[in-house]
């Protein structure tokens, strides 16, 4: 049964392609995650191209490096939205993203564009951006083209209506994989930090290979639901088996 809060989120997603849900994470949880990621960021290089951002640092293989995001990744509201759109799903590309001062706007794109499937199609990817700093238009808040989740082969034209998803830390920006969006330019003198969780239908190959990125000894200590989201699961009827058995047996 769909929760009332989930129903309103789904209504907004169907209409606009995105929704901002305030106050999902408590202030002390946000502060703890932000502080914990600083050590990882200190050892993280800036991006290699215009898409990654030459003044942006991205923390990949995040579940191999910290336990701070286990809760947000399996938040009940998020999972209920994923249940509605994707049914069977897994994490695809969870990434910590720190957009540094002077960074330019990322090219607009839909996150399901990595899969060569003609549009329009059913939703294959759902994303959640967790801001750990307040997101503002000036510091690089995610830019969104409202309604673009309903497009076919169209691309944003010059002058297309683009909004900045401004929101306080602790919110959750949930958006569909068909929505055109991109990181904003940071015109301030401070970086802005967020963590994006990409989820994809379980029959698709995830962008990041978690079975290699997260050591098996680490996975053994994770909650079962997170193990499943990292690929130790079966997409019915039997996609993902190992030697004819459920992959979770590898953890025993």
Automatic annotation (TrEMBL):
Keywords: Dioxygenase, Oxidoreductase
InterPro entries listed in its UniProt record: Phytyl_CoA_dOase-like (IPR008775)
The keyword Oxidoreductase is assigned to this record: yes
Gene3D superfamilies, per database record: q2cbj1_9rhob like domain
GO MF annotation, one: dioxygenase activity
Pfam families tied to this protein: PhyH
Keyword Nucleus listed: no
Alphabetized PANTHER family for the sequence: ECTOINE DIOXYGENASE, PHYTANOYL-COA DIOXYGENASE DOMAIN CONTAINING 1
Record's protein name: Phytanoyl-CoA dioxygenase family protein
Species for this entry: Sphaerisporangium corydalis
Organism phylogeny: Bacteria, Bacillati, Actinomycetota, Actinomycetes, Streptosporangiales
């Amino acid at each position: 049964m769909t929760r009332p809060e989930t129903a309103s989120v789904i209504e907004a997603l169907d209409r606009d392609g995105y929704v901002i849900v305030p106050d999902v994470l408590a202030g002390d949880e946000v502060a703890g995650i932000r502080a914990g990621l600083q050590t990882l960021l200190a050892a993280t290089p800036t991006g290699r191209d215009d898409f990654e951002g030459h003044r942006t640092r991205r923390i990949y293989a995040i579940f191999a490096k910290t336990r701070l995001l286990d809760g947000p990744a399996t938040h009940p509201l998020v999972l209920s939205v994923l249940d509605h759109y994707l049914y069977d799903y897994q994490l695809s590309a969870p990434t910590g993203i720190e957009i540094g001062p002077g960074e330019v706007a990322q090219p607009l794109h839909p996150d399901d564009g990595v899969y060569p499937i003609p549009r329009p199609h059913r939703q294959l990817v759902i994303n959640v951006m967790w801001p750990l700093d307040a997101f503002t238009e000036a510091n690089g808040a995610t830019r969104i083209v409202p309604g673009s989740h309903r497009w076919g082969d169209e691309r944003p034209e010059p002058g297309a209506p683009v909004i900045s998803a401004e929101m306080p830390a602790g919110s959750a920006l949930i958006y569909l994989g068909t929505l055109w969006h991109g990181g904003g330019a940071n015109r301030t003198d401070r970086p802005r930090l967020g963590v994006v969780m990409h989820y994809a239908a379980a029959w698709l190959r995830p962008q990041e290979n978690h079975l290699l990125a997260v050591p098996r000894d680490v996975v053994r200590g994770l909650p079962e639901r997170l193990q499943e989201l990292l690929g130790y699961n079966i997409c019915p009827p039997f996609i993902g088996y190992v030697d004819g058995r459920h992959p979770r047996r590898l953890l025993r």
